[in-house]
Each structure stands twice: as structure tokens, then as C-alpha cells.
Amino acid sequence: MRRTLGADNGYDTQDFVRSCRALGVTPHVAANTGVGRRSRIDQRTTHHPGYVVSQRKRKRVEEILGWVKTVGGGRKLRYLGVQRNTMWAPGLTL
User: Fold this and answer.
1) Rounded distance between C-alpha atoms, residue 3 and residue 88, angstroms
2) 0.85 cut: is pTM over it?
3) How many Å is the Cα radius of gyration of the chain?
4) Tens-binned pLDDT, residue by residue, of the chain (94 aa)
5) Nearest CA to 41 among 50, 28, 56?
6) Alpha-carbon gap, residue 20 to 93, rounded angstroms
7) DSSP of 36-93, one letter per residue?
């Protein structure tokens, strides 16, 4: 089974993609095709069915984190110290 790594379009750089491939990891980064930009991941990745699934799941996770930050009050820290804030939101690192 091939290892993959999902990331946002900020990681769509030549160095990141090259180092992932050198480690035997397929980068499932969101394509950064803004004005004057060309994505660094190629068609062998984007045309793979696993890439589409990875991007869908990533969107669902981002929606949850967005809700926690905007509606759920997760943007501001509740307590002093990392340990107490981790107890408030276990497993959630923002």
C-alpha cells in the first residue's frame, strides 16, 4: 500500500513535492493554480482515484475545523497553559 500525505495548497511547492517523493510518499496536496502559478503535482497524482477521495475527505475535515473556530468558540484559548487547553479540546490542535 502506497503512503500518501494530504496538505493544503501552501505545500504545493517543488521542494515539498520532491522531498515527499524521495521518501516514497505520494503528496496529495491541493493544487495551487492561482494567478501566475502552476501546480507542482503532476497528472499521475491528480488523475488517481485516491487523490479525489483524499481531497473530499480533507474538505470535510476543514469544514469541521472551520465550525469549531467560528461557531464553537475554538479560536480563543479558554485557559492558561497548553495542558488545560488540550483537556478542553482533546486531540484537537489548532
Assistant:
1) 32
2) no
3) 17
4) 789 998 888 899 999 999 999 999 999 998 888 888 888 988 888 888 888 999 899 899 889 888 888 888 777 877 888 888 777 776 665 5
5) 28
6) 23
7) T---SS-HHHHTSHHHHHHHHHHHHHHHHHHHHHHTSS-SS--SSSHHHHHHHSTT--
